[in-house]
Amino acid sequence: MRRRLKNGGFTLLEVLIALAIFSVMSMMAYGGLKTILNARNGTEQAAKRLNELQMAFLLIQQDMQHMAPRTVRVGYGREPAWLDEPELEYQIAFTRGGNSTPRRPGRSGLYRVAYQLEEEKLIRMIWPALDRVDGSVPQKMVLLQGVSSVDFDPDFDTENRSGSGFSQETQLGFQPDAQVGDILPKSVKMVLSLDDWGTITRLFAMPY
Description:
The protein is an alpha+beta fold. The protein is built from two helices and ten strands, in the order αββββββββαββ.
């Protein structure tokens, strides 16, 4: 008597179970991949933000370490070498040197630098012409975005410093004007509040 061979296919129930298992495994794999991609994207964003901060702090440090005790003529008046009056349109302003090879002959290598917060952007402003008329427009560059507040706190330490004893005098080829305000801070503390990273404090010490 010949046996009847069973049909070798899958039943509907077996197919449904296999599809269910495959769906669960696919969801788990997709969730893991999405987590990895999100972590990678977050790492890249953090690295980009860190690079922006490092570049901004480096430029600010270079500016401050090249401060020069040179007052500035503005219209019919003068501004001191360091200026941080609250009523100004910018938070701090100072004279910067350090250009040992000016691009154009006859230029001293000095220029005016200022920092200001505009619409949660930390702005760096420079005036290539040190002595200027009223209404001169500075060149602006955005250093950082997402800045909720910034504060510059200078330390002058006038007890331990003479009014014109700066080593930069000979290097930059000028004499400070003690009658108008050539005193520069010994250090400047910067307190920066970011929307994403919170509060960051940096202390910039001057070389003189």
